[in-house]
Write a structure and sequence with these properties.
- This is Ral GTPase activating protein catalytic subunit alpha 1.
- By secondary structure, this protein is α/β, with parallel strands linked by helices.
- It has a domain at 62-240: Rap/Ran-GAP (Rossmann fold).
- It contains eight helices and eight strands, in the order H-H-E-H-H-E-E-E-H-E-E-E-E-H-H-H.
- It has helices spanning 19-28, 46-57, 78-82, 89-98, 147-158, 224-240, 249-264, 270-278; strands at residues 62-71, 100-103, 123-128, 132-138, 162-167, 185-191, 196-203, 218-220.
- It has an eight-stranded mixed β-sheet with strand order 2-3-4-1-5-6-7-8, with helices on both faces.
- Helix 2 (46-57) packs antiparallel against helix 7.
- The longest helix has 17 residues, at 224-240.
- It is elongated, with a radius of gyration of 27 Å.
């Protein structure tokens, strides 16, 4: 059997103005009577376009903000902990493994309340997937050169519901060292021998179970950042589940889409529906939308 060189595919020229639109609908199976109830025509007007722009501005990923503290040997008060500007090499390696370092002045993702004007630091670890965004409020990354800076730092860190505490103190970390009404979950890390780390988890009684780490776990340093990050995210999810009538981002987005459809639904017979789908009329944008919307159909 002989291999034959294949010709480079040539893009197919559309047979009409809306050829690709009709082809997509046909492939999706949306042009049949059975799908009529799940496929609607909307009235094209300025209000619809404004609501669609508002939909685009809404968050489309789950967001979490998590505080990170460094406690050095002998530190047992709020001031000494909050004024730390750095930590041990093991701590710095751990923080670097939580996510990638982003510049806050030009970061386009979730900010978690941090500012672009450098008042809350220059950089911070950030982690994201297609469905999740996590930003870490790292105490050693935030300025503490004045009373105002310390107050602002405590406000950001204290308002986070999940705290990660890296403690190199010989005594166990006490919950009340950083006074806050939040901090419902504390994940405390204690370095032990042979590059291993002991995990202590403190949570309020009403907080549901979460993992993968548990109180008393011993973790290898190579997987520590990943495991702690996953545990912190799940802890944040567990806390959000306690909020009455809480909706996930996709539920809120779906509800808003349904509202748009209900407000702008254009009642049609199946014949008119099919005609408008297969041969739609161009939408002539309103004068107020000039320069913003082009060739909207």
């Amino acid at each position: 059997m002989k291999a034959v060189e294949q010709d480079e595919p040539v893009p197919q020229k559309p047979q009409s103005a809306f050829y690709y639109c009709r082809l997509l609908l046909s492939i999706l199976g949306m042009n049949s009577w059975d799908k009529r109830r799940s496929f609607h025509l909307l009235k094209k007007n300025e209000k619809l376009l404004r609501e669609l722009r508002n939909l685009d501005s809404r968050q489309c990923r789950e967001t979490h903000k998590i505080a990170v503290f460094y406690v050095a040997e002998g530190q047992e008060d709020k001031h000494s902990i909050l004024t730390n500007t750095g930590g041990s090499q093991a701590y710095e390696d751990f923080v670097a493994g939580l996510g990638w370092e982003v510049n806050l002045t030009n970061h386009c993702g979730f900010m978690g309340g941090l500012q672009k004007n450098k008042s809350t630091g220059l950089t911070t670890p950030y982690f994201a997937t297609s469905t999740v965004e996590v930003i870490f409020h790292v105490s050693t990354r935030m300025p503490s050169d004045s009373d105002d800076s310390l107050t602002k730092k405590l406000r950001h860190l204290g308002n986070d519901e999940v705290h990660i505490v890296w403690s190199e103190h010989t005594r166990d970390y006490r919950r009340g060292i950083i006074p806050t009404e939040f901090g419902d979950v504390l994940i405390v890390i204690y370095p032990v021998k042979n590059h291993m780390f002991s995990i202590q988890i403190m949570k309020k009684p009403e907080v549901p179970f979460f993992g993968p780490l548990f109180d008393g776990a011993i973790v290898n340093g190579k997987v520590l950042p990943i495991m702690v990050r996953a545990t912190a995210i799940n802890a944040s999810r567990a806390l959000k589940s306690l909020i009455p009538l809480y909706q996930n981002f996709y539920e809120e987005r779906a509800r808003y889409l349904q509202t748009i459809v209900q407000h702008h639904l254009e009642p049609t017979t199946f014949e008119d529906f099919a005609a408008q789908v297969f041969s739609p009329a161009p939408y002539h944008h309103l004068p107020s939308d000039a320069g913003k919307i082009k060739n909207k159909y």
